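Check out one such.
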Amino acid sequence: MAMEREFLSLRFPQKLWKMLESGKFQSIWWSESGKCVAINKDLFEVEVLSREGQQVFHTQKIKSFMRQLNAYGFTKMQWNFQRSASLPEFLAEEAAASAHSQILYYFNPSFNRTHPWLSETCKRRGVLKGRGPDAEKMEERPL
C-alpha cells in the first residue's frame, strides 16, 4: 500500500521515471544508452499491471498502458537484427530475436536518463476525438 501512495500523486512520466530508477521492477529498465525505456511485456503485465491493492497505473491492461505512452509522446522502436549466413549462427540469432520479441522499446526525446530535467517537458498530447462508433453523433451534438 505504501508504494501505491508513493506513486499516486505523480503524473505518468514521473511514475515511469520513478519505476525505472527504483530498481524494484525487473520488467522495465533503461536501454543501454539511457534513451529508451525497455519493457518485458509479459512480465510487466504480471509484475506491475496485475498488482492487487498496489496499482501504480490506473489500468490493468498493457494496451491501455501503451496508449498512455503514446499520449505522452513515446514512440515504439523497432530493433533490427543482422542475420548471419551460416545456419548455426542464424539459429542462435533467431533464438535471441525470439526472446527480444517480448521486449518493447519506447523512445521520447524528452525522456532521457542522462537528462532527468527533460522529463518535466513530457506533456500529454490532445486525445483525438471521434475514435468510437458514435463519433459522428458526438460531433453533431450542440454544446
The first strand starts at residue 28 and ends at 30. The mean pLDDT is 77.
